[in-house]
Amino acid sequence: MSDSVSYLTLVRMPAAARPHSPDAGAAGATRRVPRQERSRRRVEGILDAAARLVVERGVEALTTRDIAAAAGAPVASLYQYFADKEDVLLALAQRDMDEMDTQVADDLATIEILSVRSLVRTTMGAFVKVYRRRPAFVQIYLRGRTNAAVHRFGREHNARIAESLFDYAIDAGLARNELTLEVAELAVEVGDRVFQLAYETDDGGDQRLVEEGMTMMTAYLERYATPEGLEGIRL
Prior knowledge:
Blueprint: H1 4-12, H2 37-57, H3 64-71, H4 75-81, H5 85-108, E1 113-114, H6 116-133, H7 135-142, H8 148-171, H9 181-198, H10 207-221, H11 227-231, E2 233-234
Antiparallel strand pairs: 1-2
Helix pairs in contact: 1-5, 1-8, 2-3, 2-5, 2-7, 5-6, 5-7, 6-7, 6-10, 8-9, 9-10
């Protein structure tokens, strides 16, 4: 279960059942999925424009009219694909979260010695890489939780990540049966809060705080580790 395909299978399977998927608007309307290349480019252009505006103005100041203008598209075109501003924000968050899932999977695939410690550090380190590449994601996901839709998305994603990493750790033989999903969810929520604090005012993130978070998370989860989870499994 240590290769990237296995991890991505684990992390993305529950997403289909998530009530607020990227193909559903805030009001529950089904989003039109672009089929043609031209339409896909238009949607990507809208998302890229929204990302720029989020960095410049913040989440709360964003409007659909401003997004359409920045993308050089009529407002009506935006509403062909997105129900409202929250729908655009969730699509942006989902796009970057998919990139994060891929980054975690790729980095896990390079681990030579798999342990609880290396799993925690690799996962959190992958998050940092994406935060550096995607400053709008920092604004939306780490600083935009006053928005109800973004807050809900964050909690749902944390639960999905916790379940995926829990399954990964159990299947890899890193954790004893005493490790519960509730413990994994608490660990992910604490790690999420560490990132919120680290990026609260620093666009580059307070890496000393991130490092402390890694140490704290590792110590907490090692309480449930098998001998192999503590010593490491050579892959």
